[in-house]
Every structure is written in C-alpha cells, then in structure tokens.
Amino acid sequence: MSNTFLYKLLCMQTDGAAGSGGAYSASEPGNGITVQQPDPDRIGADVETVLRELVEIGKVSRGQIVVIGTSTSEVMGRRIGTAGTEQVAEKIFQAVEAVRRDIGLYPAFQCCEHLNRALVVERAILGKYPQLEEVSVIPVRKAGGSMAAYAYRHLTDACVVETISAHAGLDIGDTLIGMHLRRVAVPARPSIRSIGHAHVNMAYTRPKLIGGERAVYSSERAEAARDSCD
C-alpha cells in the first residue's frame, strides 16, 4: 500500500466537519481497500461557498480576475495528475459560473504543468487586459487537466493565455496558483478546508505599499498630513 494512499485514509478519519459530506464508497484500484468518495453535488456546493467567501474577504469586484486551480484527482482522493474526472470538473465549473453571474468576475482556469500552467479564459478578457498573451493550444485531460479541458469547452469563446496577474485565487488540491497572482498576495482561510479530499487554499491581493516613514496609506491620514515635504 502506498504512503500516499495511507495518508488519504488518515485524512478521511480526521477531516470530519472540515470536509465534504454525503460521501459514497469506492475502492482504489489494485488495493481492494474501500475509500469514501465525495458526493458530486456537495462538491459544487462547497466550491460555491468558499468562492463567495473569497469574493467577500478580498472585495473582488466586477471585471476582476480570479484564478482557479483544481486537481480533480485530489478531490476524489487520488494523487494529483493520476485520475482526473470531468464529472468533478463539471460541478466545480457550475459553481464558479454561479458566482460569476452574480459578481461579474473573470475566472481563469489553470492548466496542469504539461501546458506550463497556462490558463483558460474567455476571449473577451483580452480586450480588458491587453497585456495578456494568447497561446495556441487546446487543453485535454492528459495535457492541461480535466478542469481546464472542461472549461475550454464550456466557456464562451474560450482561449488560452500563457500567464496572468489575478486579483484573487482559489486552489483546490495544492496546484500552486501563486505564479498567477499579483505581487502582494494575502492568504484567506475558507470555512471549508477541503473539497472532497482536496486541500483548499485561497488568497486575494492588494496594491503594494510604497514609500518610507512619511508615507500615508489612508485617505483620513492624507487629509491630516498637508505639510510640505520640502
């Protein structure tokens, strides 16, 4: 039995309320050991919950970018990159779409390392963020990942960009989205710490604070500090 699989079994016993409920049972191939697999409907509900939390905590507004990194393998209790499933991707995509409709944000779905973690977006974003560079590739399950492949087929006029500087990000399964966040990222703690079996991280970003000891960072202090700098 692999160390990875033993770890997954321990997580099943200790996650409790922190993870998704409504599980059913399945066996890991080659081991004959039954593991709990998450209910797909619960996956979608949990993703929508944590994404709405991120929007609120990070004050994400219309037209801003949220990068979504997902390992559907990890959600199902398997090692990242080994058992991707578009059934899980569909539920996650639907949850992201529900939040997008309300907020007007731009989701950017990160591909796997086989496509250098490029991102699937709607072509409309290129006009708003002209620094984005489109690349020619079509994500598939084995090169891009199940989540990116599903997003490419279901976003309106999808395309792929090489890199992005997102205002916030949601990482389901420790896929390492930091390379696509703006420079000052602030970790946020979701109320749900795992989606299925996948660990959840999320962060928002803020503008850099620049200047020295005289620098002012709030409008109230700026109003009070009217002295000359000469």
Describe the protein:
The chain has 230 residues and is an alpha+beta fold. Helix content is 32%, strand content 21%. The protein contains 7 helices and 11 strands. Strand 1 (24-27) and strand 2 (34-37) form a beta hairpin. The longest helix is centred in the N-terminal third of the chain and has 18 residues, at 40-57.
Defining traits:
230 residues, alpha+beta, nine-stranded mixed beta sheet, 7 helices, 11 strands, disordered N terminus
Order of helices and strands: HEEHEHHEEHEHEEEEEH
- Helical coverage, percent range: 25-40%
Residue fraction in strands: 15-25%
Low-confidence blocks of residues: 1-27
Number of separate strands: 11
Question: Structural class of the helices, strands and pairings?
Answer: alpha+beta
Q: Per the principal axes of the C-alpha atoms, what is the gross shape?
A: globular
Number of helices: 7
Briefly summarize what is shown.
This protein has helices spanning 3-15, 40-57, 72-75, 86-103, 124-128, 146-154, 219-224, and strands at residues 24-27, 34-37, 65-70, 106-110, 119-122, 134-135, 158-161, 168-172, 185-188, 194-195, 198-205. The protein has 230 residues and is an alpha+beta fold.
